[in-house]
Write a structure and sequence with these properties.
By secondary structure, the chain is of the alpha+beta class. Helix content is 11%, strand content 26%. It has one domain (23-101): Beta-grasp domain (Ubiquitin-like (UB roll), Roll).
């Protein structure tokens, strides 16, 4: 039997997206592949992942999630101002593999 030592390297978000369809990891337990829905909120709903929302237009901030890793782009302008690593799920879509955290509110 021959043993092979393997090593892993950490890649950047831009390098990871080159491998294909963006992967979305939610709250450290649920992972799925983005199927090019309009927004991150639509993608979460398509997977039956409960995500809070109200207006779907970026006005109320109810769909705030924490972006832990990865890159997103806006699909519509938001009037609600986010703070720090917050994003609005109704106004963004992933452009790389992303990890998000939905708050327990």
């Amino acid at each position: 039997m021959k043993w092979v030592k393997t090593t892993s390297t950490v890649s950047t978000s831009k390098e990871r997206v080159m491998s294909g369809i963006p992967r979305i990891k939610v709250n450290n337990y649920s992972t799925f592949y983005y199927q090019y829905e309009y927004s991150l909120l639509d993608a979460l709903e398509a997977q039956d992942i409960p995500a809070p929302y109200n207006c779907r237009g970026g006005y109320c901030g109810c769909c705030r999630v924490r972006l832990i890793d990865g890159d997103v782009e806006e699909v519509q302008d938001a009037l609600y101002d986010t703070v720090g690593d917050e994003i609005l799920a109704c106004c963004t879509k992933p452009v790389s593999h992303v990890e998000i955290e939905i708050p327990d509110e």
